[in-house]
Write a structure and sequence with these properties.
The complex is a heterodimer of chains A (163) and B (443). Chain A has 163 residues and is an alpha/beta fold. Chain A has one domain: 2-Layer Sandwich (Beta Polymerase, domain 2). Helices cover 20% and strands 28% of the residues of chain A. Chain A is built from 3 helices and 7 strands. In chain A, the strands form 2 sheets. In chain A, strands 1-2-5-4-3 form a 5-stranded mixed sheet. Chain A has a two-stranded parallel sheet with strand order 6-7. The N and C termini of chain A lie far apart (70 Å). Chain B has a 3-stranded antiparallel sheet. The longest helix of chain B is centred in the N-terminal third of the chain and has 29 residues. Classes of the chains: A alpha/beta (163), B mainly alpha (443). Chains A and B meet through strand 3 and helix 3 of A and helix 2, helix 9, strand 6, strand 7 and strand 8 of B.
C-alpha cells in the first residue's frame, strides 16, 4: 500500500484528529491531536498499513514558542516500505502524553530517554525513571534553557586549592 | 538509591551485579540479575555510563564542525556514522554527489561493516572461550583497518565522508591491497566456520539460547543482523536504496530461529556479501587520475604564494600527496562542485581572492552550511541496524536539534526479556551477539 493511500485513508477516518498533513524534504508528516495519538497509531499498526515498527521517538524543545514541546514519532512499515512521521505539540504546563509501551517494546526505553532529557511525562508508563542521567539529577539536559557546560557531578568536585 | 529490581525482588533470591566493570560488558553497562540458583528470574539493565551529551553538544556546533563527534558514536564503524549524518544533510540541502565518491563511500562503508561484524563476533567468541577464533577475527580486522587508515588517515576517528563527497581519494594502490585483505578475510571466515559451526561447546552455548521471534524483533525495533536472524527481511540498503546499492548485486542472509547461533551465522554470511559488494565496486568505480598524475607538477607552493602577491597565479601548483593537499586538481570527482558546501581547496585560498572569500564564507560564524528551515530523517544500514539521524534546522549554521537513532539502543532494550528464564552463563553469549556499542547506545 502506498503512502499516498495511507494518507488519504487517514484524511477520511481521522478528519477531526489530524490537524495537518505536510511534506518535509520528501518525508510525509502528520500533526495530530494529543488525545487521539494512540487511536491513530493503533490504526496504522494494523493491516493493511502495517506500520509495525517504531523507528524512533524523540522530542524537540521550541523554547519561546507556544506550545513549547513537540513529540516526534517515526513509524516504519516493513511490508510496504513506508515511513511516516507523527508530530504532537505539548504545552509546557501540561507535559503529558499517552505512553506507547503497550504497543511497542522499545517505546519503554525511548520514552524514558525523553522523560530524562525533556521531562515529558508518559501516562501509563510502567517504569518511568531517568535512563542516562542518575537519580537525583536536577533539570532536563536537552531543554534549551539548560546550559551546555553546567555540571552537577554525583560526587562533589574536589579542587586542588580548596581546603 | 535502590533500583527497581532491588525493590521488587523476592528477599529469598540472590541479587547479583554484572557490570558496569565486567570483562564481558563491552563498554560499560550494568545488568542486575535476580537469581534462583543459576536461573535468571528477572533482570534490570542500566545504561548511561558513557553518556557524553552528544545531542546537546551538536546543538552548539556548526554543521561542519560536528562531523568528528559522529565518529565517536559507533566507534567500530565510524564511517557509517559519518555517512548517515552526511547523507541526512545532503537530503536536506539537496546535494548531488559525484559518482566516484559514491562508490568510494560504499567501499569504505562495507569495509566498516565487515570490521564491525568481525569485532562483534571476536568479542562474542572470546567470551565463550574460543580464543583462537578471536585472534583470527582480529587479524582479519587489522587488514581492513590498515586499508581504512591508508585512505582516511585514521583508524577510528576518520571524519572522512564529508558533506558533498569524501575527504580524499582512495589509496592509489587500493586494488592490490583490497585483494589481499579480502583474501585474508575469506580465509579467516572459512577457518572460523570450521572452528565454530559444528563445535559442540559453541553450539551448546548459542543454539536455542535467547530466541527472539520475528514478532518480538519487530516490536522492539531491531535492525541489522539481529533482526534478520529472526527471519525478518529488512535491510535499509534494499528497502530504501541509497548511494549505488541498487546497482550492486548482493543477498540479504536470513536466519531461522533468531537465537544466538543465527545471529552469529547471519553476521558471517553478511561479511561474505560485503566482500562481494567491495569487489563489484572496484570493477564498477569510475576511473580517476592515475597514481603518476596524482603528483602534480608545477609551481612550488611557496613560489605560488609569492607570485600571488603581485599577480594572479595561472599555473598549476605542486602539492604534497598527503590528505592536506588540494582536492581540486589532484582528486577530481570526489567532491561536489558547489562551493557553498565544501571546504575550498587550499591552493585557491592561499593564492586568489575568490578562494579566500570562499574560505571565510565557509568558516565564518553564521555563514557556512545553512540548510533551509525544516526537519529531516534519513537512515543508512549500520553494522548493527538502521542508523538514522533526525535533524531539525532553523535556518542557521547550527542544528536546532539533532537526534540519533542508534540501532543498539533498541536492541539492548530487549535484553531483559531475552535473558529471562536462562542461566547466568547465557548472558555472556547473548549480550555478545547483540553487538552493543557504548558510544552509540549512551550517546
Amino acid at each position: 500500500m502506498e503512502i499516498k493511500k495511507v494518507i488519504e485513508e487517514l484524511k477520511v477516518k481521522f478528519k477531526d484528529d489530524i490537524t495537518e498533513f505536510s511534506k518535509q524534504f520528501g518525508d510525509d508528516v502528520i500533526r495530530v491531536k494529543r488525545e487521539s495519538l494512540r487511536d491513530i497509531v493503533r490504526f496504522l499498526k494494523k493491516t493493511p498499513h502495517n506500520f509495525a515498527m517504531l523507528l524512533d521517538l524523540t522530542c524537540v524543545d521550541y523554547m519561546g514558542e507556544e506550545p513549547r514541546f513537540e513529540m516526534v514519532y517515526h513509524l516504519y512499515s516493513i511490508s510496504n516500505k513506508n515511513r511516516l512521521r507523527i508530530k504532537i505539540r505539548l504545552d509546557e504546563n501540561d507535559l503529558k502524553i499517552d505512553s506507547l509501551t503497550s504497543l511497542w517494546g522499545n517505546a519503554n526505553w525511548l520514552e524514558r530517554e525523553v522523560f530524562d532529557m525533556f521531562g515529558v511525562h508518559f501516562n501509563e508508563h510502567p517504569d518511568l525513571r531517568r535512563l542516562f542521567m542518575y537519580d537525583g539529577f536536577e533539570g532536563y539536559p536537552l531543554r534549551k534553557d539548560y546550559p551546555l557546560r553546567k555540571r552537577q557531578p554525583i560526587i562533589p568536585m574536589r579542587y586542588e586549592d580548596a581546603d | 538509591m535502590p533500583t527497581r529490581l532491588q525493590n521488587e525482588a523476592n528477599k529469598e533470591n540472590l541479587l547479583i551485579n554484572m557490570g558496569p566493570s565486567h570483562p564481558a560488558m563491552h563498554g560499560t553497562i550494568r545488568i542486575m540479575l535476580e537469581l534462583d540458583g543459576e536461573k535468571i528470574l528477572n533482570s534490570e539493565v542500566e545504561v548511561g555510563y558513557l553518556h557524553r551529551g552528544f545531542e546537546k553538544t551538536c546543538e552548539h556546533k556548526t554543521f561542519f564542525n560536528l562531523l568528528p563527534y559522529t565518529d565517536r558514536l559507533n566507534y567500530v564503524s565510524p564511517l557509517i556514522n559519518n555517512l548517515g549524518y552526511v547523507m541526512t544533510m545532503e537530503k536536506m540541502l539537496g546535494i548531488e554527489t559525484p559518482e566516484r565518491s559514491q562508490y568510494i563511500r560504499v567501499i569504505l562503508c562495507e569495509l566498516s561493516r565487515v570490521s564491525d561484524h568481525l569485532t562483534a563476533l571476536a568479542a562474542m567468541t572470546m567470551e565463550c572461550g574460543a580464543f583462537t577464533a578471536f585472534l583470527y577475527y582480529i587479524q582479519a580486522r587489522e587488514e581492513l583497518w590498515n586499508i581504512i587508515e591508508e585512505t582516511t588517515g585514521a583508524r577510528m576517528t576518520t571524519s572522512y565522508i564529508r558533506i558533498g563527497g569524501v575527504r580524499a581519494d582512495l589509496h592509489p594502490d587500493i586494488k592490490t591491497r583490497l585483494a589481499k585483505a579480502t583474501k585474508i578475510n575469506r580465509r579467516v571466515l572459512k577457518d572460523n566456520h570450521g572452528l565454530l559451526d559444528k563445535n559442540r561447546i559453541w553450539i551448546d552455548r548459542t543454539r536455542d539460547v535467547a530466541v527472539v521471534s520475528s514478532k518480538m524483533a519487530v516490536n522492539y525495533g531491531f535492525g541489522g543482523p539481529c533482526l534478520r536472524a529472526s527471519k525478518v527481511n529488512y535491510d535499509v540498503r534494499k528497502a530504501q536504496p541509497y548511494l549505488v546499492y541498487d546497482q550492486l548485486d548482493f543477498e540479504v542472509p536470513l536466519g531461522d530461529n533468531g537465537d544466538n547461533y543465527d545471529r552469529y551465522l547471519v553476521r558471517m554470511k553478511e561479511m561474505e556479501q560485503s566482500l562481494r559488494i567491495i569487489e563489484q565496486c572496484l570493477n564498477k568505480i569510475p576511473k580517476s587520475a592515475g597514481p603518476e598524475e596524482l603528483l602534480i607538477k608545477g609551481l612550488e607552493p611557496e613560489d605560488a604564494i609569492k607570485t600571488s602577491r603581485s599577480k594572479r597565479v595561472e599555473d598549476t601548483i605542486k602539492l604534497s600527496p598527503n590528505l592536506e593537499g588540494s582536492e581540486k586538481v589532484k582528486y577530481p570527482g570526489i567532491l561536489t562542485e558547489d562551493k557553498k558546501y565544501i571546504v575550498p581547496p587550499k591552493e585557491d585560498t592561499y593564492t586568489s581572492i575568490e578562494g579566500l572569500i570562499n574560505h571565510f564564507k565557509f568558516f565564518m560564524k553564521d555563514h557556512g552550511i545553512r540548510p533551509p528551515k525544516g526537519d529531516v530523517y534519513f537512515s543508512v544500514e549500520g553494522g548493527s541496524g538502521e542508523v538514522g539521524y533526525y535533524i531539525v534546522s532553523d535556518g542557521t549554521d547550527k542544528p536546532f536539534r539533532l537526534h540519533l537513532r542508534g540501532p543498539c539502543f533498541h536492541i539492548v532494550s530487549a535484553l531483559e526479556e531475552m535473558i529471562k528464564g536462562h542461566y547466568v552463563a547465557d548472558v555472556i553469549p547473548t549480550f555478545g551477539s547483540l553487538n552493543m556499542i557504548g558510544g552509540e547506545l549512551d550517546r
